[in-house]
Amino acid sequence: MTFDMPKWSRRSKGFRLNKDGRLGLILALPVVLIMGGLVFGPLISSLIDSFFRIDPMKAGTPFVGLKNYVTSVTDPAVVAAWATTGVYVVLTVAIETVGGLAAALLLNRITLGRRWLLAAVVLPWCLPPVVNAIIWAWIFNPSYGLLNGLVRAVGLAQENHVWFNDRATGLVLISVVHAWRMMPLTVIILLAALQSIPKELYEASRLDGATAVQRLRQITLPLIAPGLAIALSQSTVFAINLFDEAWILNGTATDTRSITIQTYIAGFQNLKLSLGMAMSLLVMVASLAVSLVYVLRVYRETRFE
Amino acid sequence: MNRRAFLMTATALPFSLGFASIAGAGGALALLLPPWGTLPKEMTDLYTKDTGGLLNIETLGWDEIHTKIATSMVAKKAPATGTELDWSWVGQFGAAGWYDDLTALVPPDVLKDMPTAAIFTYDGKLIGVPYNNDFRVMIYNKAHLDAAGAKVPVTMDELLTAARAVKAKGVAAYPIGLPLSASEGAATAWYLLTKAFGGDLFDKDFKPLFTTPDSAGFKAMQFEVDALKEGLIDPASTGLKDNEVQELFKAGKITFDLAGQAGILAVYTDATKSTVAADAHAALVPNVTGKSRSFGLPEAIGVPVSAENKDQIATYLAWMLKPEIMAANYKTLGVLPTRLSVLAALGKDGSLKDGEILAAQSAVAEPLFAQGTPGWYSEFSGAVQTALNAAAKGQIDVATAMKQIADAAAAAQQ
Amino acid sequence: MTLRATKRLFVNAALTLGAAVLLLWSLGPIYWSLVASLTAPNALVSDNLHLWPVAPTLEHYAKLFGATSTSQGNEVQSVWPQFSRALVNSVVTAALATVVTVAIAAIGAWAFVRLTFPGRDVLFVAVVATLAVPGFTVLIPLYRLMIAAGLIDTYIGVTLIYVSAFLPLALWLMRSVYQAMPLSLEEAAWIDGASKFYTLLRIVLPLAGPGLVACAILTFLSAWGQFMIPLIFSPSLATKPLTVLIPEFVTRNYVDYGLMNAAGIVAIVPPVILVLFLNRFLVQGLMAGASK
Predict the structure, then answer these.
(1) Which alpha helices (DSSP H) does B133-277 contain, by range?
(2) Complex ipTM, two decimals?
(3) Is the N or C terminus of chain C more exposed, i.e. has fewer CB atoms within 10 Å?
């Protein structure tokens, strides 16, 4: 039997389907079916339907053109939700990145018990988000919560503070809870990146007399840039989709409503389904745009491979 | 055991558990009820003893029940065989045709005994059997007032005076209890206060009447915001629903349950459930015109069209309407009976707390919407809740809040 | 002590302190919830701060698992039937989603790596790009699709949705696992006359074991924690998972903090067990996914 070149190394142009190609299509078929039927199809359906008025409580589905999109960018409640989401993105990404980098650097240095420390760090991410939010809601409880207890014990205040009365405090606390849950992801990504940096670079740099800060800035940060980009991109997309924390901690109150909560209210409480679809498509465009920006910058900056 | 066998067993196990569980759950009547409608164990046991049937009660917060019913029914799946049906949902759910006609299940003499059944009639069909004859009345803590040397207020100004006296004497830190979170209870309280200030929400063409500063609705919200700022209402109220305010009253932390549910007095005066049992009393809702006003918010049990086990619901409804069961529900849950004969009997034997006040208040309790609850009520109420919540937190002023509500009402009516 | 030794001591102290802060940050809130779930009701609503259970009691857990429960101060029917049903639902839906996702990803990713077929790269990029698509965008049309197909409130319906949500990450992960495996192993089998599919089943998959386990753990955890999807697609107890039931406890048992926290702790037991015993695979999996 002659040994032929493995078929996958030849670029097969055109539609010539060899045995491997057929097998590949068959094996990939479940993926195509599921993603096509449950993601791409609905996306297109969403797009088409967003140009109609679909409301189960009202008769008929008339064509309304861009009306839903106009509402999505002009309705004061929706605009406020966009602004709130923007705040969440900035706050959570900042906390997750700075905290995550610090934790990753720490974990990179520690060798004793790293496995267990890592398990503890990863735990918040593994728990159901609603349960996290309930746990933190208890901590923030005005009358009996840990936060007020600590604040009073330390002497910072005499009375119990109602944390969610103040919009700024509410936004910060929700961001903290979200960041608490998502930071492990950043830690893992950055840790993986840190571990791929060759030790010799640090040795050489130390011999040259560089300080720890200089080593961080000149070696570590540039070399983990791709990992940092992935982490930032993930954090941003998850922050744009923030729902559970804001919902459990502050319900439908307008001051902390994220855009996903606004979409939920429009679509599932007021049953304005096509408006909900238009809004969620805009959110998707925002998420994709962010991811694209990060991915492009990373591919442009690191010509490593 | 090799990996494949392990994986097989691991996946088979939940299935077998699941099937066992499915087999076990069949046969019970599924009900979806709010916290105050959830029967205690003694009542569910009594049901089993009387009828031989089993009850499976799912309790959900009132605000969540509406969304649950709407999303389930749009998907043509009944969330339970019998669900809560609030007076405010009749317009919306009736128009959507989601509920069965229950006229056949209620004997004509019982129907006559329940005037609130008229509110649950849509297009000639009775889509809900009323179980809670709720209307609002003011409930106060007599011990607090005595300690502060204040008298029971009749006007809104007297209410403020009494509250200030209670606070000044240190009897209660935050005397007035009002929910201010983005929930239906907060909206309901505002409606009541609008009536207390002598006005209404809409005119007969559903045009808003609350947008100008001298209107009753405006003054009502201003009252709430000012009282909060003055420290007469707990700042944590912006996160409290109406049943949480009830807990505060039971614990003796507030003096006035201003938008008190009429039946809840039974629970407030029950020493096993409340620490202020001896001191809770009802009074007519304060007003500015000399005539007290209130409105009715009855609740019913409805049967969704796509529900299962409908044979059992007839049994349940018949049992629920029995005079002794209605009386027992009043005593344990504070749910005011919807049958007039039962109310009269409770008044006669003294079980109806402050029966004369309740009767007087009930006489002046009107429906909130004389023309019948419109189908867009939920959307309107949602806007009220969030605007009130934002105004209470000081994020917008009352004028802006009123405008938001008016705009939302206009948008909802389209 | 030499300067170097002092410096090393200082560094070690700083590292230990950092580790302590990290532990406190990650585990503190969970510990606090555990304390609350074990504290007697009166002690819960007191003004004093206690960092350990003051009057330890198991009554909150008893209310979850026991013959009766409470609501509004009344003794009501046990919530155990609902709680146990929700627990079973969580396990079944998460397990089903995991098995199906890993199976499809294990085979599909291999096809993407080792075989060439038209549209391979475009398809892969498109599938992975859906990671950036928020669940919401497809939720409403999926809702209508499932209604039309009659799959609302069924295990099949929910599993399909979970699979479509978790497949991209699983594919990405398995792809990097396969790319790290040397081709020579498979080539040897092909030379011996084995078909590619047979090689996949008998040689590649067993070798990819750790990667498969990591993939399974990630998928299981993601499915276990889902809230939005079952909130809409699992309206009744037929398929309602714990993550939806527990917030409902919050709405009905607003002042029973002990019960709330106890329910929360029960819901996090399976993920905690997974992380404790399988964290090696989990971290490996996450890092494999992260580095490519």
Answers:
(1) 142-148, 156-168, 184-196, 216-230, 242-250, 265-268
(2) 0.79
(3) N
